[in-house]
Write a structure and sequence with these properties.
Layout (H helix, E strand, L loop, with lengths): L4 E3 L15 H5 L2 E3 L4 H36 L6 H6 L20 E3 L3 E3 L8 E3 L2 H18 L3 H4 L1 E16 L3 E14 L5 E14 L13 H10 L6 H4 L1 H7 L13 E7 L3 H16 L5 E8 L5 H16 L5 E6 L5 H9 L7 E4 L8 H9 L18 H4 L1
Parallel strand pairs: 1-2, 9-10, 9-12, 10-11
Antiparallel strand pairs: 3-4, 3-6, 4-5, 6-7, 7-8
């Protein structure tokens, strides 16, 4: 019951859980107390990261099963399965020259011994590496104790005696760990015995979720890694890519799909004037590939509508090649109705941006709209900051 209903009443902690990389946290169904929003956000973020890791691990398993079934059925293996469905092994990469050998780093529970140039041969374990080791060991122990109740035994982790690690940039992080464990048998004659076991582990990389829009300068990145202790372990691994990236070019590139900006509007001429001023700086002068459609609802007096039309006419005369249009609407202002009527004038494959007149945006925002929308699959909902005045910020 204590493991299912976890309670944390440490002195002066007020519900703050220092070590989240703990199997007790994963097996618990309630955590108490946990009342501060900052602590809740931290815990929620960690739980989501664990869920992402589990889904990635399951994805790797499915790729391996798919690759195996393709071989058994004597059919062609999917290209993605060829990369992600490879079974774990330390011999995937076969170096052709001495400089291509990925060197192992020796580690203990406190120190890391490395042969990387411009780095001290012995250094303390960084917080990132320590967290990675803790998370790796925790996953190993969860796999070992998965059926501990039926087997009548439980194995606890004590410490890492020593180990080796290296990063294979094509497949993942590889470990050889000498673990000191505590074997506990709780069925029959109870026995508690310390044991040592070697663990050969590989954390396989899953598929990439984003790619660099520009060509990667491997030599520059390698120099940066040698100067930065936190990323020094990548220096030797990047040598594999040095020959591959020479003379290559990014075939993906940045999307330049035309964005159709729809702005429903009534009154608020001063705000509209500010919007057009920002639109001029962001889109008209740089010649962004956009189309502006103002859905103008006529006000009761009609005075504001004439100002809007005159302002649009001035910008059209100033930028004759700009794609701008004004769609007049009658009746009471309705944002949803205006957007629906304007959207009906475009094809299904058109990239639409539903925008309010008080929004101030940048060219980078437009590019994010292109990059984060997938036709028929994904809609981009940006987070709008509305608690400050752009005049003060910019």
């Amino acid at each position: 019951m204590q493991q299912l209903f976890h309670e944390n009443y440490e002195h002066n902690r007020k519900g703050y859980i220092q070590d989240l990389h703990n199997s007790k946290i994963h097996t618990a169904i309630t955590l108490h107390p946990n009342k501060r929003p900052a602590y809740q956000y931290r815990l929620h973020n960690y739980i989501l990261s664990r869920k992402i890791s589990e889904l990635r691990y399951r994805t790797i398993q499915l790729h391996r099963e798919s690759a195996l079934m393709s071989k058994l059925s004597n059919s062609e293996v999917n290209k993605e399965d060829q990369q992600l469905g490879v079974m774990p092994s330390f011999n995937h990469f076969q170096p052709r020259e001495r400089d291509e050998v990925i060197e192992w780093e020796f580690l203990t529970g406190k120190f890391l011994y490395t042969m990387v140039e411009s780095q001290p041969p012995r250094q303390s374990l960084s917080s990132a590496l320590r967290a990675a080791l803790d998370d790796t060991v925790m996953q190993v122990m969860e796999m070992i104790n998965e059926n501990s109740r039926t087997r009548g035994r439980l194995i606890d982790f004590k410490e890492i005696q020593y180990g080796y690690r290296r990063v294979n940039p094509l497949h993942g992080v590889e470990y050889i760990l000498d673990l000191l464990l505590l074997y506990k048998r709780h069925k029959g004659r109870k026995v508690t015995v310390p044991v040592r076991r070697h663990a050969y582990l590989q954390q396989s990389f899953s598929k990439p979720f984003f790619k660099e829009a520009e060509e990667l300068d491997v030599s520059l990145l390698e120099n940066t890694n040698t100067d930065t202790q936190s990323f020094a372990f990548l220096s030797n691994s990047l040598k594999i890519f040095s020959s591959s990236f020479q003379g290559t070019r990014n075939i993906g590139g940045r999307s330049d799909k035309k964005i159709h900006i729809l702005v429903p509007l009534t009154g608020r001429f001063d705000i509209f004037s500010r919007f057009m001023d920002n639109f001029e700086k962001t889109c008209l002068i740089p010649r962004e590939n956009v189309k502006l459609a103002i859905i103008l609802f006529s006000s009761e007096s009609g005075q504001d509508s004439s100002k809007h039309m005159q302002l649009m006419k001035e910008y059209s005369m100033k930028y004759p090649k700009a794609d701008m249009t004004l769609i007049p609407m009658a009746g009471k202002f309705s944002r949803g109705l205006g957007l629906e009527m304007a959207s009906a004038q475009f094809d299904n494959g058109t990239l639409l941006l539903f925008c309010d007149v008080d929004l101030v945006f940048t060219p980078d925002f437009l590019q994010r709209c292109r990059d984060n929308t997938i036709q028929g699959e994904q809609v981009y909902y940006p987070i709008i900051f509305s608690q400050y005045d752009p005049k003060i910020i910019y």
